């Protein structure tokens, strides 16, 4: 029988079955400071050990400060949370990537860049954007705090199998349009819960053409359409990206792994429960106008109306019939696990072209990891950004979630490369417009939302 990539990954990890659920073997577990305190507490209370510490990797990212790294952390709650993760890891023998070290970063950025994320594996994390890792052809999904504890103690999880949805992006992206626009367009078409219960496989010419960074951006936002898993079939690009990374297999083990990974892509005649086709050449740069990622529109369009959108549009202080293009902003954020990788920083930097952040705009660039930061600095991107008036920060989730001291004031309007524009996400009363890194950089310089395609000509 022909199988999809999801079915192959699922089948390879089933340990036992009962009713409509399967006990899956979990190969890898990523941990961060926000979702694990109760998991460790539960292990302690039940007198349990971590079954395979070698399959776990922990890092602090959500509440870490993005400036003055190295000294004491000013926010006592953040300091306590980070210290607790460090202590828990030491106690249970789990590797912790130090805040001051060269490998720290957002959990979904460090996994892939260190070769911890591999094709063919199951990977979980107490974080909804774990779907990111599916870009490698890994079965990766976010879990709750109690499930993190179960994984640590047993290396398994009971799961219900998802239905399969293939999203085929045909054609080629226009210049100035990126993976982020594909992701936002998909979420806009399907809706914020339109893919709930599905494992999404992204396919087609425009997905094959994406870099691994771009594929991660697309898979990252899968959860914004309600699906816990987003997948891309591993190919030569995937193997080239993984090859030689610090935690990736080497030598004979590498050869054997690649041979197995080559069998993962969906069979040619595999059946999906649902199919969606999107013409990538028709996608314009996308901008969200509301308080849910599916409240999104192409630049150049005018704002929709209707009762369903009224509350969101009131919060956002935008009005039906107006253009989104030209809307003034006072903050810009380039970063997050969606768009904090090197390619994102390069595409933002390419838009600067001698320009300067507009008066009255505060713009932050927060690399996704220390390795991304080092790479960007080696390329001189930090100088480009700072000379143009952007702040160059230390890695962390930062303004994606405002759990550290990067926070916007009420009424602020921010062009942001992150993935969620919920009410208050970047600070109480602050307004978030999601868009690509190139669009955010262009908005920062113009002081208003603009069409990056016009900046790039
Ligand atoms: C704090 C964490 C559990 C949360 C998530 O699950 O995604 C956060 O990363 C987010 O993006 O909202
Ligand atoms: S960068 Fe944002 S979306 Fe990603 S893990 Fe951090 S808070 Fe969640």
UniProtKB/TrEMBL annotation:
Residue span(s) of domain Aconitase/3-isopropylmalate dehydratase large subunit alpha/beta/alpha: 7-447
Alphabetical list of PANTHER family matching this protein: 3-ISOPROPYLMALATE DEHYDRATASE, HOMOACONITASE, MITOCHONDRIAL-RELATED
Family annotation (InterPro entries): 3-IsopropMal_deHydase_lsu, Acnase/IPM_dHydase_lsu_aba_1/3, Acoase/IPM_deHydtase_lsu_aba, Aconitase_4Fe-4S_BS, Aconitase_4Fe-4S_dom, IPM_dehydratase_rel_enz, IPMI_cat
Subunit composition and interactions: Heterodimer of LeuC and LeuD.
Reported cofactor(s): [4Fe-4S] cluster
Identification of the protein by name: 3-isopropylmalate dehydratase large subunit
Signal peptide location: none
EC code: 4.2.1.33
Cytoplasm is among the record's keywords: no
Catalytic function, reaction form: (2R,3S)-3-isopropylmalate = (2S)-2-isopropylmalate
Positions bound to [4Fe-4S] cluster: 337, 397, 400
Pathway: Amino-acid biosynthesis; L-leucine biosynthesis; L-leucine from 3-methyl-2-oxobutanoate: step 2/4
Enzyme class: lyase
Keywords: 4Fe-4S, Amino-acid biosynthesis, Branched-chain amino acid biosynthesis, Iron, Iron-sulfur, Isomerase, Leucine biosynthesis, Lyase, Metal-binding
Cofactor note: Binds 1 [4Fe-4S] cluster per subunit.
Record SUPFAM superfamilies: Aconitase iron-sulfur domain
CDD domains: IPMI
Taxonomy, superkingdom: Bacteria
Any single biological process term in GO: L-leucine biosynthetic process
GO terms for MF: 3-isopropylmalate dehydratase activity; 4 iron, 4 sulfur cluster binding; isomerase activity; metal ion binding
Species of the source: Sphingomonas panacis
């Amino acid at each position: 029988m022909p199988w999809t990539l999801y079915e192959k990954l699922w089948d390879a990890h089933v340990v036992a079955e009962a009713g409509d659920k399967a006990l899956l073997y979990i190969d890898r577990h990523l941990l961060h400071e926000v979702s694990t305190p109760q998991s460790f507490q539960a292990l302690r209370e039940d007198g349990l050990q971590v079954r395979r510490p070698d399959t776990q990797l922990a890092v602090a990212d959500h509440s870490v400060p993005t400036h003055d790294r190295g000294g004491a952390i000013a926010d006592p709650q953040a300091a306590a949370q980070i210290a607790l993760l460090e202590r828990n890891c030491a106690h249970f023998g789990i590797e912790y990537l130090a805040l001051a070290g060269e490998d720290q970063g957002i959990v979904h950025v460090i996994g892939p860049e260190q070769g911890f994320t591999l094709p063919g594996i199951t990977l979980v994390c107490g974080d909804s954007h774990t779907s990111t890792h599916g870009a490698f052809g890994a079965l990766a999904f976010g879990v709750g705090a109690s499930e993190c504890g179960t994984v640590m103690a047993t290396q398994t999880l009971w799961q219900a199998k998802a239905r399969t949805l293939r999203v085929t992006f045909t054609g080629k992206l226009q210049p100035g349009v990126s993976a982020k626009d594909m992701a936002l367009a998909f979420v806009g078409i399907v809706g914020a819960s339109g893919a709930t219960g599905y494992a999404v496989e992204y396919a087609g010419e425009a997905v094959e053409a994406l870099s691994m960074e771009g594929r991660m951006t697309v898979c990252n936002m899968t959860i914004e359409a309600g699906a816990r898993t987003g997948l891309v079939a591993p190919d030569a690009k995937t193997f080239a990206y993984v090859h030689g990374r610090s935690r990736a297999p080497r030598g004979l083990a590498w050869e054997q792994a690649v041979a197995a990974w080559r069998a993962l892509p969906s069979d040619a005649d595999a059946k999906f429960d649902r199919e969606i086709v999107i013409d990538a050449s028709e996608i314009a740069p996308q901008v969200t106008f509301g308080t849910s990622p599916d409240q999104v529109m192409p630049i150049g369009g005018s704002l929709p109306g209707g009762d369903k959108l009224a509350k969101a549009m009131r919060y956002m202080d935008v009005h039906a019939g107006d253009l989104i293009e030209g809307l003034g902003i006072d903050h810009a954020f380039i970063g997050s696990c969606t768009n904090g990788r090197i390619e994102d920083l390069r595409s933002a930097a390419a838009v600067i072209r001698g320009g300067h952040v507009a008066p009255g705009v505060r713009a932050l660039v927060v690399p996704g990891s220390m390795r991304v930061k080092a790479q960007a600095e080696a390329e001189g991107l930090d100088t480009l950004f700072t000379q143009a008036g952007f702040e160059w920060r230390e890695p962390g989730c930062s303004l994606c979630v405002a759990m550290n001291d990067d926070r916007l004031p009420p009424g602020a309007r921010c062009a942001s490369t992150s993935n969620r524009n919920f009410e208050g996400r970047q600070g109480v009363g602050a307004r978030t417009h999601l868009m690509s890194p190139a669009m955010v950089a262009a908005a920062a310089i113009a002081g208003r939302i603009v069409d990056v395609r016009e900046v790039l000509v």
